[in-house]
Amino acid sequence: MKTAPTYAVASVDHALRLATMLQLEGTLSVAQAAERLGVARSTAHRLLQMLVYRDFAVQDDARIYHAGPVLQLATHSRSQTSRLRSAAMPHLDRVVEVVGESANLTIRTGTTARFIASVECSQTLRVGSREGMVFPAHRSTGGLLLLAELPDEELSVIYAEPVDDDGDPPELAALRKELAVIRAQGFVVNQGRSERGVVAVGVPVRDEDGNALAGLSISMPEVRYEKGRLPRLVATLNRTAGAIEASLTA
């Protein structure tokens, strides 16, 4: 996961988080914003009003905030990430209902993996939303799936420079062996690698040409993971990945 700046500015972080919520989720009330950020309603109101002032948000007659002109530019551009997230969200909801665990969609940029969509399950003990978070690719489920798609020479190129993550870059020879196994089996099990006490299972989501676009995964507390369920979990994930792929080409 990315390390927070030494001199983090809380108000800036709150405003950026609200902007991300508006762009990815659509709408927010002051009460919802306050709850999500863990701040007073007056603070949330001031932050949202500043976003309105800078055109990152607009407020309707019911006092609900929506993505403003600046954020809508990205939405209207229909970037691959935007289309991928829109296509995936209904299917993430369904897979959460089926397996009873939280689900995520992840893309890779260089040596990092970013969660672009996340749906929490309703269980009291659950893995929370990872949306917007960035992890080292070699430590995340989706990141490993997408690294496994790379030719050896490209893997060498992206790890040629020092990796700016947690100061623990991968040992390439060992990583190549692991990625070869992932590539051959078509799925990955991440047991405590991203976060202690969490197990994730993932499969790739592909485009029409068979290229991996993203990693689809479900995450659960380690105490609920049963190895005997793995074939069924993988089969469910593969069906869901196929449904997302079909939605992308519809």
From TrEMBL:
Keywords from the UniProt entry: DNA-binding, Transcription, Transcription regulation
Entries under PROSITE patterns matching the protein: HTH_ICLR, ICLR_ED
A molecular-function term among this protein's GO annotations: DNA binding
Protein name in UniProt: Helix-turn-helix domain-containing protein
Matching PANTHER family: HELIX-TURN-HELIX TRANSCRIPTIONAL REGULATOR, ICLR FAMILY, HTH-TYPE TRANSCRIPTIONAL REPRESSOR ALLR
InterPro entries reported in the protein's UniProt record: GAF-like_dom_sf (IPR029016), HTH_MetabolicPath_Reg (IPR050707), Tscrpt_reg_IclR_C (IPR014757), Tscrpt_reg_IclR_N (IPR005471), WH-like_DNA-bd_sf (IPR036388), WH_DNA-bd_sf (IPR036390)
Native organism: Nocardioides marmotae
GO biological process terms on file: negative regulation of DNA-templated transcription
